[in-house]
Design brief:
Layout lengths: L29 H15 L7 E4 L6 H16 L7 E7 L6 H15 L12 H15 L1 E8 L9 H8 L9 E9 L2 H6 L2 H7 L2 E4 L5 H15 L9 H12 L3 H17 L7 H21 L3 H15 L5 E2 H15 L6 H13 L3 E7 L1 H4 L1 E7 L3 H9 L5 H13 L2 H8 L1
Parallel strand pairs: 1-4, 1-5, 2-3, 3-4
Antiparallel strand pairs: 6-8, 7-8
Helix pairs in contact: 1-2, 3-4, 5-7, 8-9, 8-10, 9-10, 10-11, 12-13, 12-14, 12-16, 12-17, 16-17
The protein binds adenosine-5'-triphosphate.
GO biological process, one term: DNA replication
InterPro entries: AAA+_ATPase (IPR003593), AAA_22 (IPR049945), Cdc6_C (IPR015163), Cdc6_lid (IPR055237), ORC1/CDC6 (IPR050311), Orc1/Cdc6_arc (IPR014277), P-loop_NTPase (IPR027417), WH-like_DNA-bd_sf (IPR036388)
Protein name: ORC1-type DNA replication protein
Length: 418
């Protein structure tokens, strides 16, 4: 028997559990889709269309709803001779400025016409905007520009000011650009300059997190398609929905959990997927989340984490921020890295607390000692050391902490918890 064999028992078709899968219908979003439809109706009526801004946390259906609406809009627009519609979709995930977004839009348009792309550097911002206006004018009609994850451009929001005004400012005359901005960062919307906020957020649609019932309804058709009949125990879909609803309210999380539970059942040669696999999958995903959270910290974040791991290995926790700060500065000296203020270190600690990596205890000892915080790791020391050992700059320090922890017999018991 080979090491890999095609599974015949659990999955009938795993595609509906894939992130790129496009469902036949969008569930539990009737109000949002109705608003969306109203906002896009002027395209069909050849009336000026407002820009639209969608916001809501990750996994709440903003992208899938937009794809769904635009595919209907494109199909319906094609039935009217006098409606000229194009859509351009750019994910701004790795784009940090208006300049980069403008280049990406130009190249997306050029690529769809098999034209040569422009270089991503070397132009002035105005020049790139001019090229973009020319490309848009050549398309003509209504051009919907979807800017997914638009928050990545931060304060560099000139494009969001320039594009909606391109027609009134005489930069284009054949085209009506409409922007659909999508973001899961609520602060981005707050921080937009007032002139941008006015035009970009003309029509706003909020996508709230899903509750357990809604997630159940989203998961059900996917579960039916993905698994063989009778493989899923009745409680599996409700449990995946409940876990995801309690945590983030994200449909993506619920779908991942269901897939992971199926994969665990498959790996264990089970004939069915039960509550146990869901619970194990949830544990596994939580662990991965923490791991990713730690890996994605900045060098300063890693230095703070390293200082806390050091005190943890000596069983000197919970530790006050002033003592932790002292160790942190020593670590920075050793790494030949700049150190930041104690206040900034506290900000890093507070971020790590939000990620579930550390615990913070607040003490208020009245006038004599004042208010202070103490910290300790909320994840196993071994997990922190794994991450630091895999980070070149911290490897040597992590080695030392590991042997200290080992001398104190901390790692064995720690490992068994993990
Ligand atoms: N209402 C829904 N009906 C069916 N599937 C849904 C629904 N909402 C979300 N999904 C599915 O959940 C997953 C995540 O949805 P989507 O990518 O649209 O979220 P998002 O809000 O755009 O998240 P992000 O901000 O992280 O990009 C996708 O696989 C999508 O198909």
């Amino acid at each position: 028997m080979g090491m890999f064999q095609r599974d015949q028992q659990i999955f009938a078709d795993a595609a509906p559990l894939d992130d790129s899968y496009e469902p036949e219908d969008i569930r539990e979003r009737d109000d949002e889709l109705e608003k969306y439809q109203r906002a896009l109706q002027p395209v069909i009526d050849n009336r000026p269309t407002s820009n639209i801004f969608l916001y809501g946390k990750t996994g709440t259906g903003k992208t899938v709803a937009t794809k769904f609406m635009l595919s209907h809009l494109e199909a319906d627009a094609a039935t009217y001779d006098d409606v000229d519609l194009s859509t351009v979709w750019v994910s701004c995930e790795n784009l940090s400025s208006s300049y980069q977004v403008a280049v990406a839009l130009v190249n997306e348009i050029r690529e769809s016409q098999n034209k040569e792309k422009i270089s991503t550097t070397g132009y002035s911002q105005q020049r790139v905007f001019d090229i973009l206006y020319d490309e848009l004018d050549a398309l003509g009609g209504t051009v919907i520009l979807v800017l997914d994850e638009i928050d990545n451009i931060g304060h560099s929001d000139d494009i969001l000011y320039g594009l909606p005004r391109a027609r009134s400012n005489g930069y284009v005359d054949e085209v009506r650009p409409v922007i659909i901005g999508i973001s899961n960062d609520f602060k981005f919307r707050e921080n937009l300059s007032p002139k941008v906020k006015d035009t970009l957020a003309e029509k706003e649609i909020l996508f709230p997190p899903y509750d357990a019932n809604q997630l159940r309804s989203i998961l059900k058709p996917r579960a039916e398609k993905s698994f063989h009949d009778g493989v899923l125990a009745d409680e599996v879909v409700p449990l995946c929905s409940a876990f995801a609803a309690q945590d983030t309210g994200s449909a993506r999380q619920a779908i991942r959990l269901l897939r992971e539970a199926g994969e665990l059942a498959q790996a264990n040669d089970c004939e069915s997927v039960s509550e146990d696999e869901v619970r194990d999958a949830q544990e596994e995903l939580e662990k991965n989340q923490l791991y990713e959270g730690m890996q994605e910290l900045t060098t300063q974040g890693h230095a703070v984490l390293c200082a806390l791991a050091y005190h943890q290995s000596l069983e000197e926790v919970p530790i006050r921020s002033s003592d932790l700060y002292e160790r942190y500065t020593k670590i920075c000296e050793r790494l030949d890295a700049d150190s930041v203020s104690e206040r900034r270190v506290r900000d890093h600690l507070s971020d790590m607390n939000m990620l579930g990596l550390i615990s913070v205890y607040e003490h208020n000892e009245g006038l004599s000692a004042g208010r202070y915080h103490e910290y300790e790791l909320d994840v196993p020391l071994t997990a922190v050391l794994d991450v630091l050992l895999s980070t070149n700059r911290f490897k040597d320090l992590a080695d030392i902490i590991e042997s200290t922890a080992d001398d104190n017999n901390l790692l064995q018991s720690d490992l068994s918890d993990y």
